[in-house]
Amino acid sequence: MADISTIKSVRVDALVALRIVKHATGVYPTTVYGALLGMEVNGVLQITNTFPFPTSSEGDDSSSSALTPKNKGVMWYQNEMIKCLREVNIDANNVGWYQSTTLGNFINANFVENQMHYQSQMNERTVVLVYDSMRSAQGGLAIRAYRLTSQFITAYRENKFTLDALAKHNLAYKDILHELPLTLYNSHLATSLLHQLSTPPQPPSILPLSAAGLLNPPTSPNPIFPVNTNFNALDLTVDPILEKSCDLLLESIDAHNTEANNFAYYQRALAREQAKIATWQQKRKTENSVRVAQKLAPLPEDEWTKLFKLPQEPSRLDGLLVSRQIKQYARQVDGFTATSSAKLFALNGGTPRF
């Protein structure tokens, strides 16, 4: 397994970003998936092409799983598309996949399975691009690149997420995903076209129709480009996206409390069984001391394994994912409240309120 430091950053072609945005907004709020094509150059993963995965037919009961990249039908479609692209001399190296989300709600078992499929089977130098449709609708492109960390991949392959396994791999909720710096790139032709589009067109020259027109040439008015003025920046109402993010954060906290209660129940059950085992062992030792005094053979002291059954420790994977999702929501809320706090600070004349 290559070290995660082999990929230090991700460079996405602007056309690829536009295709992802078009695919996600076309079927919003349905989650969409697609393949990423490109190559790695000196630690920079260059994503130059993409294509969407097919959607399931209406009325299909397996519609929730038919869209995932690890689906057999999607894998066949992806391989065929790559073969066709290779025939026309287009970048056909699979470097990952993308998916859309709403307000950062993407960290779950399905997401981990898909990325694990790519990093372990397809190509170890792969990433996942997560595009947030709702946050992008507010005026900024919300797209991020992630990879699974090496210690999480090792623990996931062993399929053991007990406390001892987490301590062995030094794994915490913040060590599940590694976010890579992402930059958008335009080709020189696209940059030249954008500069031409940004230049306002010049009005056509008007030739005089008579000799008098030479003395009094017509004056063409300067083109007036209206300024798109709005007062959204002065709005002091609470952002509805901030409210939705807080609701999702509270739901994740409730899910985390449920996981914590389940683990606490396991610990109480384990403590009760261990207390019973300790009592039984003490009783057996007393019986054996009496039998030894009577010159009789002592009874075996390991029969407790047949009489008692210790509860199985639950997996901590769900708890780790929920904790990582809470961190994602907290970062979003922090970003939204920064703007609101600045507005209230300016409204109060620069004097903070305590």
From TrEMBL:
<dbReference type="GO" id="GO:0016282">
    <property type="term" value="C:eukaryotic 43S preinitiation complex"/>
</dbReference>
<feature type="domain" description="MPN">
    <location>
        <begin position="10"/>
        <end position="152"/>
    </location>
</feature>
<dbReference type="InterPro" id="IPR050242">
    <property type="entry name" value="JAMM_MPN+_peptidase_M67A"/>
</dbReference>
<dbReference type="InterPro" id="IPR037518">
    <property type="entry name" value="MPN"/>
</dbReference>
<dbReference type="InterPro" id="IPR000555">
    <property type="entry name" value="JAMM/MPN+_dom"/>
</dbReference>
<dbReference type="GO" id="GO:0005852">
    <property type="term" value="C:eukaryotic translation initiation factor 3 complex"/>
</dbReference>
<comment type="function">
    <text>Component of the eukaryotic translation initiation factor 3 (eIF-3) complex, which is involved in protein synthesis of a specialized repertoire of mRNAs and, together with other initiation factors, stimulates binding of mRNA and methionyl-tRNAi to the 40S ribosome. The eIF-3 complex specifically targets and initiates translation of a subset of mRNAs involved in cell proliferation.</text>
</comment>
<keyword id="KW-0963">Cytoplasm</keyword>
<dbReference type="GO" id="GO:0001732">
    <property type="term" value="P:formation of cytoplasmic translation initiation complex"/>
</dbReference>
<dbReference type="GO" id="GO:0008237">
    <property type="term" value="F:metallopeptidase activity"/>
</dbReference>
<dbReference type="GO" id="GO:0033290">
    <property type="term" value="C:eukaryotic 48S preinitiation complex"/>
</dbReference>
<dbReference type="Pfam" id="PF19445">
    <property type="entry name" value="eIF3h_C"/>
</dbReference>
<protein>
    <recommendedName>
        <fullName>Eukaryotic translation initiation factor 3 subunit H</fullName>
    </recommendedName>
</protein>
<dbReference type="Pfam" id="PF01398">
    <property type="entry name" value="JAB"/>
</dbReference>
<keyword id="KW-0396">Initiation factor</keyword>
<dbReference type="GO" id="GO:0003743">
    <property type="term" value="F:translation initiation factor activity"/>
</dbReference>
<comment type="subunit">
    <text>Component of the eukaryotic translation initiation factor 3 (eIF-3) complex.</text>
</comment>
<keyword id="KW-0648">Protein biosynthesis</keyword>
<comment type="similarity">
    <text>Belongs to the eIF-3 subunit H family.</text>
</comment>
<dbReference type="InterPro" id="IPR045810">
    <property type="entry name" value="eIF3h_C"/>
</dbReference>
<dbReference type="InterPro" id="IPR027524">
    <property type="entry name" value="eIF3h"/>
</dbReference>
